[in-house]
Structures are given as structure tokens and as C-alpha cells.
Amino acid sequence: MENVNEEILGAWLQLTTAINNERLVSDMPYNEALICYLLHNSQKSSPSVMPTATDLCRQTNMLKSQMNRTLQNMEDKGLIVKSRSESDKRQIHIFLNTDSDAYQKQHEKSIRLIEALVAKTGEEKAKEIAELFTMIANIAKEVIK
């Protein structure tokens, strides 16, 4: 068991060293890119229910103060738009600003990197990797709490 633990730790360290999140999203800070990604997916899947800062904190594990600072920076850059809820004036929903193409450019750059990785591994293996990454992320959320 100790050998497999060491192998997993070694593989994890190699992966996180090879794929540094700051280099993956070099055109904007990592947390901003992550929030843009989450907002983009929310707008695609359920445009009528947009997340609040609290929802984004839950999804990213960011502290509320860090989230508020990041969202303020993103709003200043024109990446996001905030809108007060009609039904509950205490809630402020966050939207990706469709007039800004900064996130789209960063996303396309990230996708090109992923395409290069898929080209090296093959599509079938890439699907297995995606499933394993998802499984590991879900287990990690459970164990690390």
C-alpha cells in the first residue's frame, strides 16, 4: 500500500508541476479564469439562475473576502456584470459580460492546449483521463472536508 501511495503522490506532484494553473491561464489570473468558466457554464446550462458570490465561494473554495475582491477586480475590468435579484434584493447575481472577449480568448487558448494533449494520448484515453480526473476531484472533495 505504501508503494502505491508514493506512486500517486509522485504522479500528482509531476502533474501539478507540469501543469501550473497560472501558466495554463496566462492571460488572466487563475481565480478570474475559474470564475469566468463557472459563469460561462451557468449561462449555458441555466441562464435564468445565475450564481451569487456565495454560490461562487462554494464552488471555488475561495474565502468571501477573496471572492469579493476578485469580483470587484473583474467588474472593474469589464469581465462581469452584477445584477440585484428582483425577488430578493439582498442577492446580487453575477453574469459574464458578453461584450468582453477576454475570457473567450483565454478559453480558446486553454482548449488548444487540451487539444494538443488529446492528440498525444488519443481520444479514447483522453475520455478515460477525464473520467478519472472527475472521480479524483469528487473523492478529494469528500476526503479533504
Would you mind describing this structure in some detail?
- This protein has seven helices and two strands.
- The protein has helices at 2-18, 21-24, 30-45, 53-60, 64-76, 102-121, 123-144; strands spanning 80-84, 92-96.
- Helix 4 crosses helix 5 (64-76) and helix 6 (102-121) packs across helix 7 (123-144).
- A hairpin with a 7-residue loop joins strand 1 and strand 2.
- It has 145 residues and is mainly alpha-helical.
- The model has no long low-confidence stretch (mean pLDDT 88).
- The chain starts with a helix and ends with a helix.
- It has a two-stranded antiparallel sheet.
- The chain is globular, with a radius of gyration of 18 Å.
- The longest helix has 22 residues, at 123-144.
Q: Could you estimate the helical fraction of the residues in percent?
A: 55-70%
Please summarize the sheet with the most strands. 2 strands, antiparallel
Shape: globular
Spans where pLDDT lies below 50 across 5 or more residues: none
**Count of DSSP strands:** 2
N-end to C-end Cα span: 23 Å
| Pattern of helices and strands | HHHHHEEHH
Give the overall average pLDDT: 88
Radius of gyration (Å): 18 Å
Q: What is the topology, as strand order, of the major beta sheet?
A: 1-2
Structural class: mainly alpha
Strand percentage: 5-15%
Q: What is the overall number of helices?
A: 7
